[in-house]
Amino acid sequence: MIPDDRLTEVFDRGLREGLEHLTPAEQQLYLIQYFILDQEMNGLSGYFFNQLPDLAQIQATIDAMRRYGLINLATLLDEALQLFRDYADPNPSSTWEAELRRYDPSNRLNAIWKSIGELDNYGLAESSIA
For the chain, what is the domain count? Predict the structure, then answer.
């Protein structure tokens, strides 16, 4: 099975049956596919908007990428995560644009997003996903 198909199969099964029905290894594949889908639909900024303040979940995604040999993708996502390492939900509420100005004043997130786009299919062909 090619990596794209394996990720899709695990992700769809996780949605259908629940993540608790996936093995720990499959849960890692689920996180990778979730990242890819969210990043494709909403960009890297959208991914962080949807995931924060759950820094542990983002770190688990990076760890899963490393486990499966997606080293360049993991490195880029880790670089983006470091921008938000001190993130806390704002109180009072704020806009995402204001949060980006606070945590990413030099607009690194956009540059990282472009670097991810330059990877050949996220590096899946070189991964150990089977």
Answer: 1
